[in-house]
Amino acid sequence: MKVINIHIRLINQPKTEVAKLFKTLASENDMMLATNKWPQMKLNKGLQVGSKGGHGPIRYFVTDYQQDNSITFQFDLKGFNGFHRFEIIEIEPFKTQLKHTIKITTSGLATLKWALAIRSLHDAFIEDAFDKVENYFTPDRKKSEWTLWVKILRKMMKPKSKKRLKNNKDL
After folding, report:
1. pLDDT at 160
2. Are strands 70-75 and 52-55 parallel, antiparallel or unpaired?
3. Residue 75's beta-bridge partner residues?
4. Under a CB-based contact definition with an 8 Å cutoff, are residues 30 and 129 in contact?
5. What is the mean pLDDT of the chain?
6. 3-state helix, strand, coil in the chain (%, to 5)
7. Which of 55, 49, 51, 25 has its CA nearest to residue 125?
8. Residue 70 and residue 19: Cα distance in Å, rounded?
9. Taking the chain, what is the end-to-end CA distance rounded to the nearest angstrom?
């Protein structure tokens, strides 16, 4: 299945200000991704071509990095052939576009995973990331709402506590 998934958010700031946050991607002080809600992006060599990593179970490697402009990741996941890219684009002197694009072809079980879970989780993940960036620059707190399906998926994926596991062993 061919997939093109694009998210765009306008930030009322100069590109140079947004680029400062962009440089923190995949660092301990990541100002781009909502690491309080989602798994942190980790890259073994930081923001540079060839760096490998991912977030949660999603694996990829950096194929292109244009400092202050974009970073492109090639998926390293069975059945996902393609890339995802973050871009920051100056629209006007005090207006910058954040853009995230996935362009992939899925095959086999990956098509089912994308359709049933990954697409919805990804959409929420990116909107939360864009909220974090926007909220950095404004006192108005933007909070994108998760769909009921995202809430259900996250609850199903949440690790069980040790106490609950111990009690289940007693049954």
Report:
1. 66
2. unpaired
3. 60
4. no
5. 93
6. 30, 35, 35
7. 55
8. 10
9. 44
State how far the Cα of 155 lies from the Cα of 149, in Å rounded to an integer. Answer: 10
pLDDT of residue 171: 37
Name the DSSP class of 57. Answer: T
Of 41, 80, 48, whose CA–CA distance to 63 is shortest? Answer: 48
Which residues contact residue 56 at a Cβ distance below 8 angstroms, ignoring those fewer than 6 apart?
38, 39
Give the integer Cα–Cα distance in Å for 146 and 86. Answer: 21
Domain 2-159 sits in CATH at 3.30.530.20
List strand residue ranges (DSSP E) for the chain, in order.
2-11, 42-43, 52-55, 58-66, 70-75, 80-92, 95-106
What's phi and psi for 111, nearest 5 deg? -65, -45
- Is residue 169's pLDDT more than 90? no
Please give the structure tokens belonging to residue 42.
């980790």
Upper half-sphere CA count for residue 88 (Cβ side, 13 Å)? 27
pLDDT at 1 over 50: yes
Coil/strand/helix, residue 136 = helix
Radius of gyration for the alpha carbons in the chain, expressed in angstroms and rounded: 17
In the predicted model, what is the mean pLDDT of residues 67-86? Answer: 97
pTM for the structure as a whole: 0.90
What's the confidence (pLDDT) of residue 158? 82
Length in residues, the chain:
171
- Closest Cα partner for 58 from 127, 9, 104, 20? 104
